[in-house]
Design a protein that fits this description.
By secondary structure, the protein is an alpha+beta fold. Helices cover 30% and strands 23% of the residues. The model is unreliable at 209-230 (pLDDT under 50).
Length: 321
């Protein structure tokens, strides 16, 4: 029987999707691609494959999960399997410079960014920046490695110190700091390549902005909890969000086979919009969704179910000839 195959490396992040599959009575199976053996000469099972591999997999001791997935996806594609978020999408997920190249190609403004390998090179890059700047890991997820610096000297002190944390791929980005009039960013969610909703994210507590509820558990550096407070919630779904940037994002995602994704942007004091991150392993904040009456994971499950029915009715080739 055809089914939906979910490719991932994080049990907790898949739990809301399991619940949505169950609610919709959809057959599915999980492929936990931490390690294993791929027989490239074999034929994969028939079905719809959804890639949820994360750029932050190495932080969960799954160092080569993304590399393994980068082998599995071309195998599936070779045999004509229906893959949601295929090889091109994975390439976006694990390399921010690739993201910026695609964004610029589609006429989408990005912050000035320098990519540096090696501590001396990072310091050299910082000296080329004017004003405040941030560092971030080229391959990250959850905002890993994001730090704000007011000067090249401050960065040098950090880079020369024992607390310096290098990116897992060895590439550190030095990027201009976009000062917003209010401390928030906007994340635009897409499912099936179509706009789902936009969410406003308060950045007061820091830059690590993983929206998954599980990030609240045992991860003080990913503070997304909805703690009792008189203040507004950290994540808020924006009702009636409409901006020309949506159409540009949709074209970019379509060109990169990224059908389920979240794209983040910020506006500066002049109102200029800068896009700085694309997440193809997107998560959703349940508290924000409950307040708005929306469900990202249910939308994802419904889309995958639709693709499964199309496959069964012959609207998608089950395998290459």
């Amino acid at each position: 029987m055809n089914r939906i195959y979910v490719i991932h490396e994080n049990e907790a992040w898949v739990e809301p999707l399991r619940a949505a599959f169950s609610e919709l009575s959809l057959p599915f199976e999980e492929w936990f691609l931490d390690k294993g053996v791929l027989d490239f000469s074999s034929e994969p099972p028939r079905g719809v494959f959804y890639n949820r591999m994360s750029a932050s997999s190495h932080t969960r001791d799954h160092r080569y999960a993304a590399e393994y997935t980068s082998c599995v996806l071309p195998w599936l594609e070779l045999h004509g399997r229906r893959v949601v978020n295929g090889s091109r999408a994975l390439r976006l997920e694990i390399n921010k410079i690739v993201q910026y190249a695609e964004l610029e190609k589609h006429g989408i403004r990005t912050p000035r960014t320098l990519a540096a390998v090696g501590r001396d090179a990072i310091i050299e890059a910082a000296r080329k920046m004017k004003g405040y700047f941030i560092t971030k890991h080229n391959r990250a997820g959850k905002g890993l490695g994001v730090r704000l610096f007011h000067s090249a000297e401050a960065l040098e002190n950090y880079v020369r110190s024992p607390v310096f944390e290098d990116s897992v791929d060895g590439v550190t980005l030095v990027q201009e700091y976009i000062k917003a009039p209010e401390p928030f960013i906007t994340r635009v969610e897409f499912v099936g390549g179509k706009f789902l909703y936009a969410v406003k994210v308060d950045t007061t507590l820091g830059f690590e902005l993983c929206p998954a509820d599980v990030c609240e558990v045992g991860d003080a550096m990913c503070p997304v909890g909805e703690k009792p407070s008189a203040q507004a919630p950290r994540f808020q779904v924006l009702e009636g969000f409409d901006d020309p940037i949506i159409e540009k994002y949709q074209r970019l995602l379509a060109a990169n086979d990224a059908e389920v994704a979240g794209v983040e942007f910020i506006r500066d004091e002049r109102g200029v919009l800068y896009t700085y991150d694309i997440n193809t392993n997107t998560n959703y904040n349940s508290a924000a969704e409950e307040r708005s009456g929306k469900s990202g994971m249910r939308a994802v499950a419904a889309f995958l179910g639709q693709e499964l029915r199309r496959l069964e009715h012959g609207h998608i080739d089950a395998a290459a000839d």
